[in-house]
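This part of the workshop introduces the protein records we will be handling. Each record describes a single protein and holds just a pair of labelled lines. Instead of coordinates, the fold is spelled out as a row of discrete tokens. To make this concrete, we reproduce a full record directly below:
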Amino acid sequence: MAQFKIFIVEDDPWYGQILQYHLSLNPDYEVKLFETGKECLSRLHEKPDMVTVDFSLPDISGDKLFQKINAFDPAIPVVVISSQEDISVAVGLLKAGVSDYLVKDEATKDLLWNSVIKIRENQSLKKEVEVLKEELGQKFSFEKTIIGKSSALTKVFGLIEKAIKTNINVSITGETGTGKEVVAKAIHYNSERKKKSFVAVNMAAIPKDLIESELFGYEKGAFTGAVSRKIGKFEEAVGGTIFLDEIAEMDLNLQSKLLRVLQERELTRVGGNEQVKLDVRIITATHKNLAEEVKAGNFREDLFFRVMGLPIELPPLRDRGTDVLILAKHFADDFAKSNKMSSISFSQEAKNKLLQYPFPGNIRELKAVVELAAVMADEGTIDAKDLSFFSTQKEKTLFLEQKTLRQHTCDIVQHYLNKYQGDVLETAKVLDIGKSTIYKMIQEGEVKTG
């Protein structure tokens, strides 16, 4: 491991050597001593991990030297050491970004030692965060995170590919539980913005009277209880992505304020006058049809066109065919691993039962069903009896309308052809009918494969 490189800038050779000797007691530290600010600046290309600066140098003041170091590389921590205890100077330097301000006395050596330890810890944490962000980017490689091989999902992959190449706004639609936030994260963590924040906001979960301050922040004294400034979600996402989930639930009055923010690319905190510039990508999601909401007067048309950008519609699980089995296996493996269980498999009867159920709760429901089945299963195999469906929605049925038996038969066959992307053999197998029967229905135009 490379040594932690420390530059000491001290015009008093004796005092400087004391500090150098004291810090060099740690073999992990490489300590270099300079008597002038000019010497230090000429060696910054060596990339020190931190610099200590005497406030009263003969060639440059400590605050000016800090400014030059900060201009060269703002990531270099600077500790100022002064012979005078001036509170106003200390506060000013700390506000400007100095890591620490120490007064020369008998305790300076130990205080400096502690400062170095804190700086190392902070740098270590920052590196860990960067590594985690990088890993998260790899983790959200969407072809690994969004699981499935159906043609319906392949279309979604193509749209995600287009989305990550630009900063266009993205609007994601789909039933509850289809994975809208997963898609939003996949776009963010595969885009150029992946090293900045992904901020998710559930618009339906925030009380109406709090949502403006949550999104745009507020200034101290803006209202009772605002004892200090608060940064809003949009500012948290600067440089990155803000994900506005369930945007259709937003109040009309707030929609107009959001529209202005999107148009001007700036915001004003509640109770303030300062205009804050924004560089934020907007991804929205809803389970409702926004165009229909516009027609009904529930959503502003101008905002609709602002947030629409690139529309991505997520297919419900019932239209993704055998993706149900791929996802079920994935959830079973994850559950077994996290609970230190042996590998879990599915019987053919269990697979058939999964394929025949419409999953109104989509992927979220499938995950819950599989995890419960994994607990109930005997000897590592999930059977049909282990699968319990507790849908909270009324299941759609093919028999609500008054039709002939032949018409109902065609509807059933068509449903499974859609489910299996036009696979006649799979449909015939599931329905236990001859494939020639289905081919004849196709030939006569009663059902379609595409």
User: Anything to note?
Assistant: The first helix runs from residue 13 to 24. The CA atoms of residues 262 and 434 lie 57 Å apart. The first strand starts at residue 4 and ends at 9.
